[in-house]
């Protein structure tokens, strides 16, 4: 228990897993990709209409990503959206085990060069 009387419990790094979501790994992967898309839109000061013009993906798709409404997105669609914004991006998926729970990590990284 902390000094303030509040008990803290360390998380797993995946909030969806921490709350017992059965699709935790998939949701975490989508959230990581969406965060990167949102970051690029913000860095470039792109509106959803500007992103639509630049990529060919619907403005509504970018709006859904910005609002974290990711339920209708597949991983490959989010990866394609991300790649359309930054053709130097590389997405790596590693599958492994942490303890007894399967872990799926996804980290978009900028390609060197």
The biggest sheet, with number of strands, parallel, antiparallel or mixed sense and barrel status, is: 2 strands, antiparallel
What would the CATH topology be? 434 Repressor (Amino-terminal Domain)
Strand content: 15-25%
- Order of strands, main sheet, comes to 1-2
Gross geometry: elongated
What are the low-pLDDT stretches, counting only 5+ consecutive residues below 50? 99-104
Structural class: alpha+beta
**Helical coverage, percent range:** 40-55%
Q: Radius of gyration in whole Å, from Cα?
A: 17 Å
Mean pLDDT: 86
- Summed up, the domain count is 1
The overall strand count is: 2
Can you identify the CATH superfamily?
lambda repressor-like DNA-binding domains
Terminal-residue CA separation: 48 Å
CATH class: Mainly Alpha
The helix-strand sequence is: HHHHHEE
Helix tally?
5
- Identify the CATH architecture: Orthogonal Bundle
List strands and helices in order, with pairings.
Blueprint: H1 15-18, H2 24-43, H3 48-55, H4 59-66, H5 75-85, E1 89-98, E2 101-110
Antiparallel strand pairs: 1-2
Helix pairs in contact: 2-5, 3-4
Overview of this protein structure:
The protein has one domain: 434 Repressor (Amino-terminal Domain) (Orthogonal Bundle), CATH 1.10.260.40. The chain is elongated. The protein has helices spanning 15-18, 24-43, 48-55, 59-66, 75-85, and strands spanning 89-98, 101-110. It has 113 residues and is α+β, with helices and mostly antiparallel strands. A two-stranded antiparallel ribbon has the order 1-2.
List keywords for this structure.
113 residues, two-stranded antiparallel sheet, 18% strand, alpha+beta, 5 helices, 45% helix, single chain
């Amino acid at each position: 228990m902390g000094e303030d009387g509040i008990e803290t419990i360390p998380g797993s790094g995946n909030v969806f897993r921490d709350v017992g979501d059965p699709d935790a790994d998939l949701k975490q992967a989508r959230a990581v990709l969406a965060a990167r898309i949102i970051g690029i839109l913000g860095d470039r000061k792109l509106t959803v209409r500007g992103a639509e013009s630049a990529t060919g993906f619907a403005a509504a798709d970018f709006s859904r990503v910005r609002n974290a409404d990711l339920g209708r997105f597949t991983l490959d669609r989010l990866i394609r959206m991300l790649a359309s914004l930054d053709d130097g991006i590389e997405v790596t998926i590693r599958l492994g085990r942490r303890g007894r729970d399967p872990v799926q990590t996804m980290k978009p990284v900028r390609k060197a060069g």
